[in-house]
Specification:
Length: 453
């Protein structure tokens, strides 16, 4: 989603005879014509446009309050950058001279630390230590030469407890000057966790560990945009985390290799095959794999409560307890009371909800899958891999070949699927495989990697 300011910024660049940011990025990376860096796809987000200024690739970040819709039915009062949380992804190329203006439109001071970036001490952004804090209404200028490539982050280094828990963070991605291998789809997912009391709209920054909302790019399932890939695409997923917990991010149907962190790329001899990658606080993790298995594959945090929405904690364990007649009797005292949990928690979603509050698991309506409800919320999205995709728009649900769907024992054919539309995840910015980035697809891959070795 582009903010009005970003659009204005882009149109000024266009009017000045400059090319689109994507085209500019491609133009800056033509040292290896046969192999280019793909533009990063930030699901439910976007990359920050830039312009040339005094030979610097120049960006303008605006720290400001942001209202973010986590999923249909839940809007949250956050702080972020340029109308977004996480802030827009900043992309540059190794060797670039980068200038970043940071304008503070928050009601308190802030600063920006460039996490993992090798730069002069006075540009490191720790308020009090490396600079004075940026007061409300002030704009500061950061400038450095990019000496590395990999997945870095930006975040405040002033009142971190409040500013992190309100959503202030973003990707800072440095592409290699000479890419060593072909990447077709380059995704970026920023993890975060929040405490938002059911019925309220503003995160509680005082929460230390007992969070109740867990997000990919500040969205929860079913609000998370799916990752779309063609069969055979080589995929990179960059995951970043500055929350209070670690998050083991798990992919289905494939194995990936851990190829890099915020410390830089791992040598190929050190790539580790995994299906889950733990992302500790204060780190980024890059994984790569070939999308060699078509279908709709879950991609999620493997901590169970992190794939649920506003879970009420402190509940008594009722599994196996006979509660027959309890609801009827309690309803005389508390209208609307429901006895729950005798045979698990699958019946919880049918209870009434306070305003601006999501179901624990998104069971109904726009979270319906092709076979019924998808009992997930929080840090969950879908990796959709298809043969013969014309664009990277959402292709809908996977059409399984006959005989490849689990079905009741004793039947010989797959059961009929109910007709169903893809879930509503809103914005789509994944682009199409046509245009200059099509070149990437034609490029030879010198280090072939199969997903199943
Ligand atoms: Cu998690």
């Amino acid at each position: 989603m582009l903010s009005r300011r970003n659009l204005l910024f882009s149109s000024v660049a266009a009017a000045a005879g400059l090319l689109s940011p994507r085209r500019m990025l491609a133009a800056a990376t033509t040292t290896a014509p046969e192999r280019r860096n793909p533009s990063v796809v930030t699901p439910n987000g976007s990359s920050l446009p830039w312009r040339w200024e005094d030979g610097c690739k120049t960006f303008h970040l605006i720290a400001e309050p942001v209202v973010r819709e986590f999923a249909p039915g839940m809007k949250v009062n956050c702080w972020g950058y340029n109308g977004q949380t996480p802030g827009p992804t900043i992309e540059a190329v190794e060797g670039d001279r980068v200038r970043i203006y940071v304008e503070n439109r928050l009601p308190e001071p802030t600063s920006v630390h460039w996490h993992g970036v090798l730069l002069p001490n006075g540009m490191d952004g720790v308020s009090g230590l490396n600079q004075r804090a940026i007061g409300p209404g002030e704009t500061f200028k950061y400038e450095f030469t990019v000496k590395q490539h990999g997945t870095q982050m930006y975040h405040p280094h002033f009142d971190e407890m409040v500013q992190f828990s309100m959503g202030m963070m973003g990707f800072l991605i440095f592409h290699p000057r000479k890419p060593q291998r072909r990447i077709d789809r380059d995704f970026a997912i920023f993890l975060n966790e929040w405490f938002i009391k059911p019925g309220t709209s503003t995160p509680d920054p005082a929460m230390m560990l007992d969070f109740n909302v867990f997000t990919f790019n500040s969205r929860v399932f079913p609000g998370t945009e799916p990752l779309i890939a063609r069969l055979g695409d080589r995929i990179r997923i960059r995951v970043a985390n500055i929350s209070m917990d670690s998050h083991p991010i798990h992919v289905h149907g494939h194995t990936f290799r851990w190829t890099g962190s915020d410390g830089g790329p791992l040598p190929e001899t050190a790539w580790i095959p995994e299906t889950s990658i733990n992302v500790p606080p204060g780190t980024t993790r890059d994984v790569e794999f070939v999308a060699d298995n078509p279908g709709d594959w879950a991609l999620h945090c493997h901590k169970v409560h992190h794939t649920m929405n506003q879970m009420g904690h402190g509940l008594p364990v009722m599994t196996g307890v006979d509660q027959s007649g309890v609801s009827e009797r309690l309803n005389e005292l508390i209208p609307g009371y429901m006895a729950m949990g005798s045979s698990g928690m699958g019946d919880m979603p049918d209870m009434g909800l306070p305003r601006n509050t999501l179901l624990m698991g998104s069971h109904t309506g726009n979270a319906d899958g092709p076979f019924g409800s998808i009992y997930m919320g929080g840090m969950f999205t879908i990796l959709k891999i298809r043969k013969n995709l014309k664009s990277y728009e959402d292709p809908g649900w996977y059409d399984h070949p006959a005989g490849t769907v689990a079905s009741p024992a004793g039947t010989t054919s797959s059961p009929e699927k109910p007709a169903s539309k893809p879930h509503e995840h809103h914005s789509s910015n994944q682009g199409t495989p046509t245009g200059e980035f099509q070149v990437v697809r034609a490029a030879a891959c010198s280090t072939p990697m199969t997903g199943r070795r």
